Structures are given as structure tokens and as C-alpha cells.
Amino acid sequence: MSDLDQHPTVKRFRASAQEPRPAAPSPLDPDELRALCLEAGADDAGFVEIGRADLDPDRADVLGAFPATRTLVGIVCRMHPEPIRSPARSIANLEFHQVGDRANEVGHRLVEALAARGIRALNPPIGFPMEVSREKSEKIWIVSHKRVAVAAGLGRMGIHRSVIHPRFGSFVLLGTVLVDAEVARYGRPIDYAPCLECKLCVAACPVGAIGADGHFDFSACYTHNYREFMGGFGDWVETVASSGSVRRYRARVTSAETSSMWQSLSYGANYKAAYCLAVCPAGEDVIGPFLTDRPTFLEEVVKPLQRKEETVYVVAGSDAEAHVSQRFPHKKAKRVHSGLAARSIPGFLAALPSLFQRGRAKDLSATYHFRFKGEESLEATVRISGPELSVTPGLSGAPDLLVTADSRTWLRFLQGNASLVWALLRRRIRLRGSPRLLAAFGRCFPS
Q1: Beta-carbon neighbour count of residue 240 at 10 Å?
Q2: Distance of alpha carbon 364 from alpha carbon 187, whole angstroms
Q3: What SS3 state is found at 22?
Q4: pLDDT the model gives residue 343
């Protein structure tokens, strides 16, 4: 390394380092930073400090990706309502893809503009690619753009679980830029909910994922709307692998479904519905037609989606399957696997509220103790009382069923790679109480 000082690159760097450079203001002026965001192509922007309690769930991942992060810039890119409302999903998905690409480009341009001012920054993607190769973590994203947007005052979550912007409504895509600089003034959550609680998203959802009481069935939404994303793709691959012949594959998967999967692989994953966004009338720029002529709004926006004949993907025995047959008998319910499988014991317990099927649990009242041993040692209590579910750490109360399991065996069982009978015979899983209660538990969480 003795010749390092004479290397041309080193010499040029040291010479340039001696030249005076204007220092970036510290902290950054929020108005100037917002102007940079708008110049980069954003339709709105807001700022959150890394220490905000609202960001606790993401902070470790954010700092792991960019340890210098001091500010998170939330970015809003507006979508046009009419394409999203079209019953032709190709039109709607083109809008999602185009604005999604624009949001990523906005983040890239902002990083570039900040770098020109001597400020380090990076922009995680607004969606995929994510950290899908993590072995144990159920969390594959670096930062929740929704969480940042709400904390920055760019909107509030509606009952459809998407951020509603005060002006643009639900027709937005969100991004985040991590910045190595403080801002003189940060945003705060807005003091009202743009959501009108009109329940049109409840009426339009083909799988009943959104309850009128605010309940959200994540499994139903994920299984259908994201059929051609990660979980559904995995299920399709396993269908291909297990078919054994072209004839059997064609009996299980229609040519239209094969073509649709190819299209998603070639041009970007397509949403099957997203009707909750399409029918949402909230937002100052969006609400007019709903307020001035509600019957026409319902006839032109909501009912075409309700009347549409389509395949709706559901898990066998799920509340979604029952909803399709009762509410939309003209739509074809097709049973598939959700693709949701826990990769860790904490992930299994954390996912239970998202997978819980209230309709399947209406006649069940039981307390379950889970005692996991081996690679992941953990204890938890799960109580099901009709439509109510609670999951608490530790063992509390008197159990109706105690499940003691080797953690790896339990995960293999959940993933379909181990037989319950095999595990019971080899005492890898042990039950104290009626086995019927374990079967009842499984019916509440079909996958």
C-alpha cells in the first residue's frame, strides 16, 4: 500500500477535497425539501424523524438498510381514478404499473437531487423487489410506506386498509426515501379521517375481506387479489409440479389462468380486484360525483364491479368461499391454497389474527395453550370465543387443549411437509385434551 499516495485516483480525490464546497443546510428547510420532491415528480410529500414512535416496527430494518437515516420522506404519486374503476383489470393494472414505476423514479430523482447537495439518501422500492430470501422473518419489506405516510400527515387509513389522501383519496401510490439529514419541521398525522365510512368498499369486495364493523380478513384479500403475486405463484408452481401430466394440469388450471399468470410474469404482477380503491369516493378531488348524484355513481362505478362475472380465488372452508356463494353467486369461486405459511413460531402466532375466520369460529369457545420446544422455545395462549380471538404470550388460565410441539415439526406440519399423525405417533407433537379441539382450531385458520 506504499504506492497508494501516488495512485492517480487518490491524488485527484485529495486535490478535490481541498476545494471549498458549499455545505448543505442543517437542518433542511421543509419547504425547500418539499419543492425538491415536487420537482422530482411527486404529487405530495411529508417528513418523519427516525425516532418517531410510529416507526418502531420498521426502525431496525430501516437502519439496517441505511444506518445514517435521520429522516424518512414520504412520497405520494396520484393515480387517475377512471382506469382504476374500469371492470377491465388490464386497464386498471396498467395504471398501477405506470404510477408504480413513476413513484420509484421519483424516489431515484430525489436521491440524485439530494446527492448533488452533498446529502446521502436512498429509496427502497415501493413494492417488489423485497427481501424475500429471509429465512425466518415474516417481514420482507424494509419500510412500511403506509406507516410513513400516515405519520407524515399525508393521509389516514380507511377501513379498506389503504391510505386515503385528503385531496387525492384512495387513488395514490406511496414511496419512501431515507435521508441522512434532519429537517427543521416534521409532519404530524392529520386530525381527521378522510374515510367517509360509506361502506362501498364493503359492498364491492368480491371475497368479503372488509367487514361493515371494520374487521379485515387479510387471508381472503391476499388469496384473491394477490393471486398472481408471491403466494399464489408458489401455489401455481406446486400445481404444475404435482399435476404429472398435461391433461391433469389442464383439468386443474384453465388456459385463461395460465395466460394470466404468464402475463403477470412478463409484464408485472396483476391485481385481481382492488375494487375497494376503485369505488372509494373519499378525497376532495374525488368526492364530487358521489355527493352530487349518488345513484349514478353507484350505477356507473360500483355495480359494474359487482355484476362482473369472474373467477374468485378462495381457500376451501373459508369465510370468503361462503361470501362468494351467498353474495355473488354469478362469480365462480375456485379453491386454491393461500400460499401463506409461517416460517417461524413467532410468525405463526403473529399471523393468527390476520388468518382468523370469524364465520368458522362462531360455535367455538375454547382456550388453547401452545408450548413450543426445540429450535424456537415459546409459550402462548390462544382464546377463541365465537368471533373473538386473542393471542397472548405465556400460559394463562386453564386450557381446554394443551399442545406441546417441537417447533420445527410444527412448522413443517403447517407447511404441509409433515403428517400430524406421524408427528403424534413419534411424540413430536403431543396433545392434552380432545383432539377434536385441534381440528376445530384448524378450521378457524384454513390456508
Answers
A1: 14
A2: 45
A3: coil
A4: 87
pLDDT given for residue 2 in this prediction = 63
**β-strands 378-385, 332-335 pairing:** unpaired
Question: At a CB cut-off of 8 Å and minimum separation 6, what does 361 contact?
Answer: 384, 386, 387, 389, 443, 444
User: Hey, where are the domains in the chain?
Assistant: 23-179, 200-335, 345-444
- 345-444 folds as Nonspecific Lipid-transfer Protein; Chain A (3.30.1050)
Block means of pLDDT (10 residues each) for the chain, 447 residues, are 82 80 78 98 98 96 97 98 97 97 98 96 94 78 97 97 98 98 97 95 97 94 95 94 96 96 94 97 97 97 98 96 97 94 91 94 95 96 96 96 96 90 94 96 93
Q: Return the C-alpha cell found at 133.
A: 430470501
Give the residue from 367, 402, 414, 403 showing the smallest Cα distance to 388. 367
For residue 327, give the nearest of 182, 204, 223 by alpha carbon: 204
Place of cell 407433537: 429
Q: Residue type at 222? A: Y
Phi, psi of 394 (to 5 degrees): 80, 170
Distance (Å, rounded) from C-alpha 134 to C-alpha 127? 16
Q: Under a CB-based contact definition with an 8 Å cutoff, are residues 49 and 70 in contact?
A: yes
d(CA 208, CA 314): 11
Residue count of the chain, please give it.
Answer: 447
Q: What is the pLDDT of residue 14?
A: 85
The CA distance from 277 to 95, in Å, is 13
| Threshold 0.90, pTM exceeds | yes
Q: Provide the pLDDT for residue 16.
A: 82
For domain 23-179, the CATH class is: alpha beta
Residue-level pLDDT at 17: 76
Beta strands 401-406 and 365-373, pairing class: parallel
